[in-house]
Amino acid sequence: MELHITPALALLREHHLLDHVSNLTDFTATNVSYDSRKVKSGTLFFCKGNFLPKYLASAKENGAIAYVAEREYSEGNGIPAIIVKDEQKAMALLGAAFYGYPQNDLFIIAITGTKGKTTTAYFADHILAQSTDKHVALFSTLDRILGNQPEDKFKSDLTTPESLDLFHDMRVAVNNGMTHLVMEVSSQAYKKNRIYGLKYNVGIFLNISPDHIGRNEHPTFADYLHCKEQLLVNSDKCLINAETANFMDVYYTAKATTQPEDIFLFARRGAEVVLPDGRQIDFEYRNDLEDLHESEFELTAMTEKAKQLHLDGRFTTSVPGDYNEGNAVAAIIASGLAGAKATDAVETLNHVHIRGRMEMINSHEHGTIYVDYAHNYASLKRLLAFLKRQTNAGKVTVVLGATGDKGISRRPGFGKALTEEQPDEVILTTDDPGYEDPMKIAREIDSYIDHDKVKNIQFEMDRETAIKKAIDDSKNNDIVVLAGKGEDPYQKIKGKDTPYPTDVKIACEYINELEK
Asked: How far is 337 from 367, CA to CA, in rounded Å?
């Protein structure tokens, strides 16, 4: 991989990003990086994010031959300075060029939504793995899968990574023979221009509800919605859950850049949806069976263009929760647009397992423990409502906290969900507190709970202790819900990823210890 200065500058001019170049020389970059620790001879270095000039000095010392920034730095004297109007956009464009535009060799399905992205991504990944003989890559909140060898699979650190990492991983996937890519796209990826210029073959919009709104994320819900909608603006074909909030806004955003025949709508049969004049639901689905182990539903094409995909049928998923049926439907339709058949979904959906999503741990004397990533109002309410419908639970105990520094809007949402679903006991604890005091966060959640409806609320800031306490206090017919972290193996504390055993491991090991 390499990038010559002449086409690089032409690309920046084309997008009206180039301000000026100082100390210009003829060079070809043989490496790109925004991390000074990874710089080697021949590197084009990007000064991004929480940048300190000393990083540039280190990059130069390590072999950087030029740098891209929004202003000049004396630490870069002696090497070309490419000054741009938006460094993040420039990095995305030049990163794609450096890695040879790998996106052009992939059929990309991109997914956004406040909840359900990861589940939908895993469903689509399994369907496409069946239809392409395992030539599908996956970029999800949980995993990055770039090929079929063990070294091609690793834990994700961001839902949507920085642009240089994104295009690097796409290139690796293409070189590994992958022909398709399923990727989650976060609102922050658009807010921070990590995916500037990237186009998708199919864009899925699952839903929208207030989340990620706070001082370090989106300032308003309108900004959050706008960033989510950019996925549709950048997709050849759009697939929209017609039951989403703000549907008309979402639909007309898609229609502004996409022909109506390339927009597909789906909804649960009987759902009350308001459609634009002349529009029909393209696919309807109906729940036939749901329990704590699987869901069964029927999918029916309602329009001629939907019927041409031949996706009608009955499907069973191994991921419980009626709310996951819509995620499965989105995956089936998107995979159909990528060439998969209904039989590919029938043969795979009942074998999908997603770590930290509705994981169930049984015990002999301490009830059933459910671990789920539910981390906002909508997902917590749906989870608790589903469990209450599906179980004859005695006591219901919920263990949860809220993240610090971001997602401030989740705190009143948690209080509202707990008030509406009325668990018997709530233990408020720590969940990625960042630079905030976890007890202060817990007290804030508590302030939004109606104590006439939820009377037993406890505070335990050590999450492992909170989990063990909830299990200790439960008997055979009770259930314990561990919400918010899923399979996260760390806690973000004061700027550091502090190792954490995961909720699942803590619960399993403690139950084994109790029942020896």
From this structure: 43
Distances (CA, A) of 435 to 160, 254, 308, 472, 495: 23, 38, 53, 31, 7
Average pLDDT, the chain: 92
Three-state DSSP state, 298: strand
Res 215 pLDDT > 90: no
Amino acid at 393: A
- Take residue 182 and report the two structure tokens written for it: 């399923």
CA 514 vs CA 250, 368, 481, 505: distances in Å: 50, 14, 18, 14
pLDDT tens for each residue of 146-157: 999 999 998 887
Tokens for 350?
Answer: 């009942």
Rounded percentage of the chain residues whose pLDDT exceeds 70: 98
Helix axes 323-337, 117-131, angle to 10 degrees: 40
pLDDT tops 80 at residue 407? no
- How many other CB atoms are there within 10 angstroms of residue 64's CB atom? 26
Residue the block writes with tokens 């406040």: 114
Pairing of strands 81-84, 107-112: unpaired
Q: Are strands 143-145 and 43-46 parallel, antiparallel or unpaired?
A: unpaired
User: Would strands 107-112 and 180-184 be described as parallel, antiparallel, or unpaired?
Assistant: parallel
Neighbours of 171 (CB within 10 A): 21
pTM metric for this prediction: 0.86
DSSP 380-397: HHHHHHHHHHH---S-EE
Residue type, 163: S
When computed from its CA atoms, the radius of gyration of the chain, rounded to whole angstroms, is: 24
Q: Is 91 helix (H, G, I), strand (E, B) or coil?
A: helix
Calpha distance 290→325 (Å, rounded): 10
pLDDT tens, position by position, 412-459: 999 999 999 999 999 999 999 999 999 999 999 999 999 999 999 999
CA dihedral 433, 473, 380, 185 (to 10 degrees): 50
Taken in order of first residue, the domains within the chain and their CATH numbers are 3-98 (3.40.1390.10), 102-351 (3.40.1190.10), 359-514 (3.90.190.20)
232 and 205 Cβ atoms separated by less than 8 Å: yes
So what's the pLDDT on residue 212? 61
Q: Which of 59-68, 307-316, 368-377, 420-429 has the lowest mean pLDDT?
A: 368-377
Q: Are 427 and 396 in contact (CB under 8 A)?
A: no
